[in-house]
Amino acid sequence: MAFPLPRGITPSEIGFLAEMEMVTVVPRQRLEGLELLGGPIEPLVPPRRASLPLWLALLLKRQRRANIMPPSWLHPEPLNLILEVESQHPDYRDAFSPPPPLPGQPSIRDDGLAPTARPQYTPDGNRYYASPPFLPQNTAQTEGFSSRDPPALPFHWVEMGNMLLESASDDLVEPDQIRRLLKDLPATGGGGVALTGVGAMEVGEERGFLTGVVDNLRKIGASKEQARREQMAEQRANGAYDGAQDEEEEDYMEF
Amino acid sequence: MDIDDILASVDHGPGASPESTSLDHQSLTRFWVSERAVSEVLPWPTALMDRMMDRVRMQIESIEDIAASSADAPPPTTHNQNANANHNPNLNLRLSILQTDLARTQYIIRSLLRTRLAKLTKYSMHYLVKLSSTNQNLSQSQSQSQSQSQSQPTPEDSVPDISAIASFDPLSESEASFVHAHQKLLASHYSGSFMGAFPRQLRRLDDNAGGTSMIQGPETREVVFVRCLGAAVPVLVVGEGEQEEDIGVTMRMGDVWVVRWEGVKAAWLKGEVELL
C-alpha cells in the first residue's frame, strides 16, 4: 500500500504544522545564523530576543540554550478574557471566539471596514496569501497583551499551549492556572459549530465526523438534486425559468 | 524591487534568495496539506518541486561537508585547544538543527509523494484516460485501432498509450510513467488470472456498456475544510453540465467553511482559499 493514512492530516501532523509557528526566544548562548530549508534563521546573540520556529525553540529549550517567551495570548489574563467571551457573549456562546485577523483583515473593533487582501508573490509569479502557521500569532508582543486588539486564540492554540506546558512550563506565567484555563476552553461551545475561529486540532477531530455527515447528506440528497436539475433544465428549455430556486438543497453549509 | 535585485536573484539560481526559500517552504507545506485533504491528484507544481529537490540535495551536501570537517578536525593539541573548544559545541548543535530541518522537509515531500501514489494506483485508469484525452493526438487513435484490428483483445489493450503525450498535467512525468507501467502490469495480471477466460467483448478495462463507465475516478463533490484568504471568494455551485455555474455563498476573508471541493477548486488554484 502506497499510503495507509486517511484523508486529511492526522493530529500528530497538525502538531508538526504547529511546530512551524514562530515564537519569541531569549537565547542563552550565541549561535551564528543558519540557512535552513524552511528559511533563514537569524543569529542568536544573548540577551537579544529572536523569532524562531517552535520546533527549533523547543530543541534549544530542552538543551537549556534558550528560554521561550510565552505567546501574548498564553497568559492567565487574556485566556480569562477569551473564556468569558466564549461563555458569556451572546454572539459567541454557541460558537468559537473570533480568531486573530489575517494580514489586511480589519480587526473585530473596526467591523464594517472592508478587508483588503495583501498577497505576496511566489518565485513562479503566483499570488500567495500568508496564513497560520506562517503568521506571527504566537510571538510575545513587546508591550504585552494590552494592545489595541482584543486577545484571540490562534489557529494552533491547542498544540502550542500543550507543547509549551509540557516542555517550557517554567517559562510560563502561572502554568497551573493556564493549564486549567486551556482545559476549560473547548468545553464552552454549546452544541452548534460555527467554524470561523476553529483551531487546527479541532478541525482534525471533527473532520471525520463532519465530512461523513455532509457526504451522507449529499448522497441522500443526490437523487433529489438530480430531479431538481432535470426540472430546471426542462424549465429553461420551455423558457419558463424565472429564477425561483428551491432553497431546500444547499451545496454548502455553515455549521 | 530594483532591476538589479531581479538580475541578482536570477544570477544566483534557485534557492539563492532567502525570501524565496521561506516562501517555497510555505507553499510546499500548504500544497502537502491540500494534497492530503482532497481525493483527486492536484496539479504537480513542477517549478516549486524542482527548486525544493535542488535545495534538499544542496542541504544534504552541506551537512555532509560540516560532518566531514568535524571528523577531520585534528585532535586537540595544546596549540589549538582553545579554538576547538570554542567551535565544536556549536558545530554539533548546528548539525543537529540542520538535520532536524532536513528531516522535517523530507517528511513533507515523502508524505506528499506517497499520497499521490496512493491516489494514482486507486484511480489509475481514470488518470491514464485523462492523460490521453487531454493530449488529443495520434496516441488515442492508435490504441483504438490496435485493439479493433486484433482478433484476440486483451485487457492490456484498453490501457491508453501515453508514450507520445506532451503534457502530463496534473501528474509529474515520472508519476505518469509509473501509473502507465502499473496499469499495464495490473492488466496483464488480470488477463493471466481470470480475464483471459472471459468472452472477448468483456475483456476491456474501460468498458462503459449500458452507460455505466467501469473507470472509477476521484469524488470531486466531497466536502473539504477551507479558509478564505482573499477579500471575498464566491463558492461556485457546479451544475451537471460543466458550463453552468451558479454562485452560492460568498466567503469572507478569514472565514472557515465546509464546502464542496469542486465549488472552491478554481479559487484554490488562484491561492485565494487554503485547505485545512
Polypeptide structure, described:
The complex is a heterodimer of chains A (255) and B (276). Chain A is α+β, with helices and mostly antiparallel strands and 255 residues long. Chain A contains 6 helices and 8 strands, in the order H-E-E-E-E-H-E-H-E-E-H-H-H-E. Chain A is 35% helix and 10% strand. In chain A, the strands form 3 sheets. Chain A has a 3-stranded antiparallel sheet, with helices on one face. In chain A, strands 2-3 form a two-stranded antiparallel ribbon. Residues 142-146, 187-194 and 240-255 of chain A have low confidence and may be disordered. Chain B has 3 domains: 3-122, Methane Monooxygenase Hydroxylase, Chain G, domain 1 (Up-down Bundle); 126-211, no CATH class; 223-275, Ribosomal Protein L9, domain 1. Chain B has 8 helices and 5 strands. Chain B has helices at 3-11, 18-37, 46-72, 81-122, 124-134, 138-149, 173-193, 261-269; strands at residues 223-228, 232-238, 245-252, 256-260, 273-275. In chain B, helix 2 (18-37) runs parallel beside helix 4, helix 3 packs antiparallel against helix 4 and helix 5 (124-134) crosses helix 7. At the A-B interface, helix 1, strand 2, strand 3, helix 2 and strand 7 of A face helix 2, helix 3, helix 4, strand 1 and strand 2 of B. Chain A: Residues 10-69 form the DNA replication complex GINS protein PSF2 N-terminal domain. Chain A: It holds the Pfam family PSF2_N.
How do the helices and strands line up, and which of them pair or pack?
The complex is a heterodimer of chains A (255) and B (276).
Chain A (H helix, E strand, L loop, with lengths): L10 H8 L3 E6 L6 E3 L2 E3 L8 E4 H9 L3 E4 L6 H13 L31 E2 L5 E2 L28 H11 L7 H10 L15 H39 L13 E2 L2
Antiparallel strand pairs in A: 1-4, 1-5, 2-3, 6-7
Chain B lengths: L2 H9 L6 H20 L8 H27 L8 H42 L1 H11 L3 H12 L23 H21 L29 E6 L3 E7 L6 E8 L3 E5 H9 L3 E3 L1
Antiparallel strand pairs in B: 1-4, 1-5, 2-3
Helix pairs in contact in B: 2-3, 2-4, 3-4, 5-7
